[in-house]
Structures are given as structure tokens and as C-alpha cells.
């Protein structure tokens, strides 16, 4: 990296590090209350379910896209064969 590009990221790095120190000093009352009530596991479960749902959706989407790609490739293959055979035929 050049010196100029490193200087460009310096303000961003300063803001990120500064915000981390400010946020670390403030207690998170909502999380403490959820932990005290034992409801933090509900939050964790909901986040896990959402994450698993997104992963399942992406896997299914990937398989559908793969199927469509195979269909397109299969359709392209006969077209190239047809064009070669039509050139072999005599014209009228």
C-alpha cells in the first residue's frame, strides 16, 4: 500500500477505535436484564433460527441456479451440433 492510501484510512481507523472505547464503558442494561431473567437463550435461539433459515435458503438457491446453468448448457450443446449438421446439407 502506498503512503497516501494508508493516510486515507487513518480517520476511519481513529473513529472505529474511538467508538470501541466509548461503547465499552457503558453498561448494556437490556442485555443484563435478559441475562438475569434467563431470556437471553430465547434471543440466542431466535438468532440461530434466522441464521439457519438464511443458510438453507442460500443452499436451495444455489442448487436451483446450478440446475438452471446445467439446463442452459444442455440447450447450447445441441444448437452447436445443429449448426454443424445444417452446414453439411446441400442447399436447394
Automatic annotation (TrEMBL):
InterPro entries: Put_ccm. Residues 1-24 form the signal peptide. The chain crosses the membrane at residues 40-59. Keywords: Membrane, Signal, Transmembrane, Transmembrane helix. This is CcmD family protein. It comes from Fibrella aestuarina BUZ 2.
Amino acid at each position: 500500500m502506498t503512503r497516501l492510501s494508508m493516510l486515507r484510512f487513518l480517520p476511519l481507523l481513529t473513529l472505529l477505535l474511538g467508538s470501541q472505547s466509548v461503547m465499552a464503558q457503558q453498561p448494556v442494561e437490556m442485555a443484563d436484564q435478559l441475562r438475569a431473567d434467563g431470556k437471553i437463550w430465547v434471543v440466542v435461539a431466535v438468532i440461530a433460527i434466522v441464521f439457519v433459515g438464511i443458510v438453507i435458503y442460500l443452499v436451495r438457491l444455489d442448487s436451483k441456479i446450478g440446475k438452471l446453468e446445467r439446463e442452459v448448457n444442455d440447450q447450447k450443446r445441441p444448437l452447436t451440433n445443429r449448426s454443424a449438421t445444417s452446414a453439411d446439407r446441400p442447399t436447394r
